[in-house]
Amino acid sequence: MKKVKLSVLVSALFLLAGFSANSQDANAILKKVDNVMYSPKDMTGKTKIILTDKSGKQKTREANIAQKGMDKRIFEFTAPSSQAGIAILSLPKDVMYLYMPAFGKARRISSSVKSQNFAGTDFSYDDMESKPYSEKYTPKLIKTESDAFVLELTPKSPKSPYSKLIVKIQKTNFYPISAEFYDKGNRKIKEGTSVYKKIGNYWNAQEMTMTTLKKNHKTKMIMSDVKYDSGLTDGDFTVRKLKR
After folding, report:
1. Does the domain formed by 2-83+113-236 have CATH 2.50.20.10?
2. Is the Cβ–Cβ distance between 77 and 87 less than 8 Å?
3. Who contacts 18 (Cβ-Cβ below 8 Å, separation ≥6)?
4. Is 146 exposed, middle or buried (0-12, 13-18, 19+ CB in 10 A)?
5. Hey, what's the torsion of the CAs at 124, 126, 129, 134, to 10 degrees?
6. Cis peptide, bond prior to residue 139, ω within 30 of zero
7. 53, 103, 186, 189: which has the highest count of C-beta atoms within 10 A?
8. Which of 128, 196, 140 lies closest to 165, judged by CA?
9. DSSP secondary structure string for all residues of 47-74
């Protein structure tokens, strides 16, 4: 009987050790992803947005994007004229603002509406938030493929619109290749893919595609004119700047 108990105890210890190592590996991977995504001091660029509905009909928009560090971002539509000036500002501590030129003022976005799509795209306000993965999610390593790590990311905030994300991380350079998004009912609702290109010392998400499965609606963002470390300041990421 003592041998049986000892065997069970040893097995349990091995399982716990394996779980701990797996958790540490997942956290290390996710922190490396953050290092890739947020390594520049700042970034500016232009974005072409292509919206495709289930019939294949397309609409095209254009936008400017600016990023500083890990937690400051402005995304502003510049075309067509009906969308020009609509902008979103993401700041530290889960603070986000939406500016609509028609109303002439910025309004703070509450956590309860972050699941809603931003300006008709397939990206939610939550998706547009500038926040490191390691601060936003608790990771678990599901499996290792020949070219990728597969992580399950569980939101740390109960206010997140998602129950989990399944993300593939490129093995060599640690940038995210694809993601599956699950709602609170654990149903897969969206799929995202990214294509990265190295610009100077940094990896840039040159193309990002998000598809809403139920509607069969797709948004593709194509980056161009990307510039890094140009000296943006905190003053470039204010509500006053958003209105301008």
Report:
1. yes
2. yes
3. none
4. exposed
5. -140
6. no
7. 189
8. 140
9. EEEEEE-TT--EEEEEEEEEEETTTEEE
- pLDDT tens, position by position, for the chain (244 residues)? 545 454 544 444 444 444 443 545 999 999 999 999 999 999 999 999 999 999 999 999 999 999 999 999 999 999 999 999 999 999 998 899 999 998 888 999 998 888 899 999 999 999 999 999 999 999 999 999 999 999 999 999 998 999 999 999 999 999 999 999 999 999 999 999 999 999 999 999 999 999 999 999 999 999 999 999 999 999 999 998 887 6
Dihedral over alpha carbons 124, 128, 131, 135 (to 10 degrees): 20
For residues 49 and 221, the answer to whether their CB atoms sit within 8 Å is: yes
Residues 6+ apart with CB under 8 A from 25: 141
**0.70 exceeded by the pTM?**
yes
- Domain borders along the chain are 2-83+113-236
Residue with tokens 């963002």: 221
- Rounded-to-integer distance, Cα 25 and Cα 66, Å: 32
The contacts of residue 11 (CB under 8 Å, 6+ apart) are: none
- How far is 189 from 163, CA to CA, in rounded Å? 11
Tokens of 41: 């001091």
